[in-house]
């Protein structure tokens, strides 16, 4: 198992951050990886597959490519799956589930295609294991098998992760629209907050919800492995060596660092909902970073900087089908929920423009020197905030195409300064 091709899927837009993370975790040279849309492929070993599951904050899963063939019909898929030595990976005592995805496949039924792959796996075991075949479990399978079809090619993967990697094992309390831990980690990676060997800047999330962004940041600061609290599918596979895995986990535990007693807090979170602050506190305790983060209740439109020196704000504010703005913005609700015109920023509007305008005004007045990174699906957000972004990073939050906007907080916005110079021609966002 030393010559494997792994594929680590990630949210679109995160590939550029996942690739260096893989190299950092494995110590492999750059020539071993290939960036693709929606993930990164890497040529390496089963041991590195375990390491990547343990440490990766950006990947959604760690998949092993077990077959790549051309196909024309479902029988070709059956033959491809039948040729894979599944018995080298698991026994017929493990339950299986086959999932299939496709891009421009000519097949009329993906369900039937998945059924043919499942039949091939079971028939292979009947031949190699004395007539015994694995059971199918669509809810909690021991082994997940993925088939990806293009117009003429079929890739078969076995999943070493099990539950998706964003399930770190610490978030039991969550709100109505929680941000996935992998996307929170991508926001941190894009901001460059943890890059370099120097001291970390203060980090603050004024709309922290259940604490995902600040807990991810705190675990990064403490060098806590992302998967240290959970189990993985590969622990049931035949190539798995318990002693080797125990050594990896022990090394990860020894690498954890915590602040010295009396050291100033650098990571802060607040939320207008005191219920969410309680959730965040409990999640931080399970994640092992409760002593690294300072949580408080408070309205984002009124909270003053949590520390005297400038830092970085990372914000996933209310939008779309998420939650109400609440607090000083009133009872504004976003998307499909009712949003009074007085707080919506327009006659009968529903985009929360007034909330974001007030937020930007508050930041410009009180957060001079800070850098704010805001994740939103609203490409017009800089205009609503009357701020000029210095960077925009494309990212996907599930099915929503988003942008991570970077704003430098200075006295007065770039729009206002341009307006002073040319009053008749205000600058565009």
Structural write-up:
The chain is of the alpha/beta class. The chain has helices at residues 15-26, 46-55, 74-82, 110-128, 181-191, 212-221, 242-254, 274-287, 341-344, 353-366, 381-385, 414-421; strands at residues 4-9, 33-36, 39-44, 63-70, 96-102, 143-149, 153-159, 203-205, 267-271, 293-297, 312-315, 371-376, 391-397, 400-408. The strands form 2 sheets. The chain has a 7-stranded mixed beta sheet with strand order 2-3-1-4-7-6-5. Strands 10-9-8-11-12-14-13 form a 7-stranded mixed beta sheet, covered by helices on one side. Strand 9, helix 8 and strand 10 form a beta-alpha-beta unit. Helix 2 (46-55) runs parallel beside helix 7 (242-254). The chain is elongated and about 70 Å long. The N and C termini lie far apart (53 Å). The model is unreliable at 321-350 and 413-429 (pLDDT under 50).
Overall morphology: elongated
Q: In total, how many beta strands?
A: 14
Output the number of helix runs: 12
Q: Which strand order does the major sheet show?
A: 2-3-1-4-7-6-5
Q: Tell me the Rg in angstroms.
A: 24 Å
Low-confidence stretches: 321-350, 413-429
**What kind of oligomer do you see?**
single chain
Helicity, as a percent range: 25-40%
**Average pLDDT metric:** 88
Strand content: 15-25%
Largest sheet: 7 strands, mixed
Report the end-to-end length measured between terminal Cα atoms. Answer: 53 Å
Order of helices and strands: EHEEHEHEHEEHEHHEHEEHHEHEEH
Counting helices, strands and paired strands, the structural category is: alpha/beta
């Amino acid at each position: 198992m030393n010559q494997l091709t792994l594929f680590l899927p990630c949210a679109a837009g995160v590939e550029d951050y996942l690739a260096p993370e893989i190299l950092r975790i494995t110590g492999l040279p750059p020539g071993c990886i290939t960036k693709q849309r929606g993930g990164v492929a890497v040529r390496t070993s089963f041991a590195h597959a375990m390491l990547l599951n343990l440490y990766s904050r950006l990947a959604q899963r760690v998949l092993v490519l077990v077959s790549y063939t051309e196909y024309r019909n479902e029988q070709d898929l059956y033959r491809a799956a039948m040729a894979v030595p599944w018995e080298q990976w698991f026994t017929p005592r493990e339950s299986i589930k086959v999932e299939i995805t496709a891009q421009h496949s000519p097949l009329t039924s993906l369900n039937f295609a998945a059924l043919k792959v499942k039949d091939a796996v079971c028939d292979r075991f009947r031949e190699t294991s004395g007539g015994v075949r694995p059971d199918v479990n669509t809810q909690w399978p021991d082994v997940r098998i993925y088939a990806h079809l293009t117009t003429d090619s079929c890739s078969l993967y076995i999943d070493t992760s099990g539950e998706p990697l964003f399930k770190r094992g610490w978030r039991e309390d969550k709100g109505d629209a929680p941000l996935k831990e992998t996307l929170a980690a991508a926001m941190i990676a894009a901001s460059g907050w943890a890059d370099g060997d120097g001291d970390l800047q203060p980090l603050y999330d004024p709309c922290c919800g259940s604490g995902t962004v600040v807990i991810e940041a705190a675990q990064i600061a403490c060098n806590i492995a992302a998967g240290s609290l959970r189990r993985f599918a590969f622990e049931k596979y035949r190539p798995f060596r318990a002693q080797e895995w125990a050594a990896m986990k022990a090394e990860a535990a020894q690498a954890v660092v915590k602040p010295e007693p009396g050291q100033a807090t650098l990571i802060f979170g607040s939320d207008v909902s005191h219920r969410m602050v309680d959730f965040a506190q409990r999640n931080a305790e399970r994640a092992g970073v409760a002593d690294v983060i300072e949580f408080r209740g408070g309205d984002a439109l009124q909270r003053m900087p949590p520390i005297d020196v400038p830092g970085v704000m990372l914000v996933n504010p209310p939008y779309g089908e998420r939650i109400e703005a609440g607090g000083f913005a009133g009872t504004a609700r976003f998307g499909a929920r009712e949003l009074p015109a007085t707080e919506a920023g327009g006659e009968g509007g529903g985009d929360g423009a007034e909330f974001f305008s007030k937020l930007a005004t508050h930041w410009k007045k009180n957060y001079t020197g800070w850098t704010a990174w805001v994740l939103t699906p609203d490409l017009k957000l800089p205009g609503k905030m009357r701020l000029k972004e210095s960077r925009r990073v494309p990212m996907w939050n599930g099915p929503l195409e988003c942008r991570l906007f970077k704003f430098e907080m200075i006295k007065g916005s770039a729009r206002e300064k341009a307006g002073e110079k040319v009053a008749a021609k205000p600058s565009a966002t």
